[in-house]
């Protein structure tokens, strides 16, 4: 049954409810490690632009909420701006940019790592309360004329890996296959106790989700036994959640690589509008789908911030790595051009993904018809 799309106010509220805590946790990672090293923070902001509300703590840090809820920042003492560019005229040894490079590296790295930690905590709690997916990878059934039949898979085979990705549960099989429509993959399996490797092309299927939105997935055509959810103890849940978070991160890497190599369309890239729509849809399905989405958004936020693009944490980490090798920082002019290039790249990406979002909503097609 197709579900109705949630209302725009509901989508906006869900988006803010999803993004706000993730940004707070990210910036708290920066702030916490900076405080550990004794680096003063002038501003801790959730959102950009004019301040809606805020307060100043005993250490002189201004905690505030901006009117544009699309991110946040911690401005350290000695920062030239919210992007944490250095003030080359500042020589105070207690300020951020005059600290040893290893301290600056760890302070910046702490933000993305906090997002991965949050995802691990969410998944661990989910595994303890609801259960972790543990469906065995034994092939119970085969679809007629499927990719599995063409590849040579048989009932009773136990799938070990697909496309080099370990498949410890049938959920791993589904996730790995769905990302690779029409792709040729190697499949490692065990048949009658003997390991073997098969190779072949996966199938593809155009589907619609609960809200009528089309998407394309890969198909293998194998069936498993009944789904299993196993509740884990706290000791077992944390490593299981860490592995699950890594699997999700690797799936993101796979998707990005497929786009870079042309195996997947750039139309699959979504921006803030798509994120808002997904947040609203998942929130309308219930608390557990929404919490799971928070974990996935947190992984995405951590991953994106690690990209080596100036203006992002990954760009700063790249600068600090170069500084550690050269034993001196890049010059003011080089950093200025790098930040300008990074800003231009980010603005271009936002514009591109926004156009993609509008196209996925059907607005571009409607405008074309009006103009035509």
List the helices and strands and how they pair.
Layout: H1 8-36, E1 41-56, E2 62-76, H2 101-129, E3 132-133, E4 141-142, H3 147-151, E5 158-162, E6 165-166, H4 170-178, E7 184-191, E8 194-201, E9 203-208, E10 214-219, E11 222-223, E12 229-230, H5 234-260, H6 272-285, H7 287-305, H8 313-326, H9 332-360, H10 363-371
Antiparallel strand pairs: 1-2, 3-12, 4-11, 5-6, 5-7, 7-8, 9-10
Helix pairs in contact: 1-2, 1-6, 1-7, 2-5, 2-7, 2-8, 5-7, 6-7
Relevant terms:
372 residues, alpha+beta, Pdz3 Domain, elongated, disordered C terminus
Explain how this protein is built:
With 372 residues, the chain is an alpha+beta fold. The protein has 2 domains: 8-129 and 297-371, no CATH class; 135-227, Roll (Pdz3 Domain), CATH 2.30.42.10. It contains 10 helices and 12 strands. The protein has helices spanning 8-36, 101-129, 147-151, 170-178, 234-260, 272-285, 287-305, 313-326, 332-360, 363-371, and strands at 41-56, 62-76, 132-133, 141-142, 158-162, 165-166, 184-191, 194-201, 203-208, 214-219, 222-223, 229-230. Strands 6-5-7-8 form a 4-stranded antiparallel sheet. A two-stranded antiparallel ribbon has the order 1-2. A two-stranded antiparallel sheet has the order 3-12. The radius of gyration is 23 Å and the shape is elongated. It starts with 7 loop residues before the first helix and ends with a helix.
């Amino acid at each position: 049954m197709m579900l109705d799309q949630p209302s725009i106010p509901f989508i906006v509220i869900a988006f803010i409810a999803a993004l706000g805590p993730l940004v707070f946790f990210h910036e708290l990672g920066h702030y916490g490690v900076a405080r550990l090293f004794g680096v003063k923070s002038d501003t801790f902001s959730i959102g950009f632009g004019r301040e809606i509300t805020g307060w100043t703590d005993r250490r002189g840090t201004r905690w505030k909420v901006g009117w544009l809820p699309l991110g946040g920042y911690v401005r350290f003492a000695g920062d030239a701006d919210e992007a944490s560019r250095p003030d080359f005229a500042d020589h105070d040894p207690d300020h951020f940019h005059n600290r040893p490079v290893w301290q600056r590296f760890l302070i910046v790295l702490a933000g993305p790592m906090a997002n991965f930690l949050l995802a691990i905590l969410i998944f661990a709690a989910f595994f303890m309360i609801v259960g972790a997916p543990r469906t065995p990878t034994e092939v119970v059934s085969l679809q007629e004329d499927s990719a599995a039949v063409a590849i040579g898979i048989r009932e009773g085979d136990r799938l070990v890996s697909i496309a080099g990705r370990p498949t410890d549960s049938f959920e791993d099989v589904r996730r790995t296959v769905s990302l690779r429509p029409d792709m040729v993959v190697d499949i490692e399996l065990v048949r009658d106790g003997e390991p073997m490797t098969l190779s072949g092309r996966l199938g593809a299927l155009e589907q619609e989700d609960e809200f009528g939105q089309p998407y394309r997935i890969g198909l293998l055509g194998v069936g498993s036994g009944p789904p299993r959810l196993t509740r884990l103890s706290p000791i077992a849940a944390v490593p299981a959640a860490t592995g699950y978070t890594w699997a999700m991160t690797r799936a993101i890497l796979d998707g990005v690589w497929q786009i870079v190599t042309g195996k997947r369309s750039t139309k699959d890239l979504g921006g803030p509008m798509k994120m808002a729509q997904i947040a609203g849809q998942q929130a309308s399905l219930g608390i557990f789908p929404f919490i799971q989405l928070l974990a996935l958004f947190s992984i995405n936020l951590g991953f994106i911030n690690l990209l080596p693009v100036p203006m992002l944490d990954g760009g700063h980490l790249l600068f600090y790595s170069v500084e550690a090798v050269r034993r001196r920082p890049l010059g003011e002019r080089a950093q200025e051009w790098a930040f300008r290039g990074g800003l231009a790249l980010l603005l271009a990406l936002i514009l591109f993904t926004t156009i993609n979002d509008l196209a996925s909503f059907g607005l571009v097609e409607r405008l074309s018809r009006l103009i035509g």
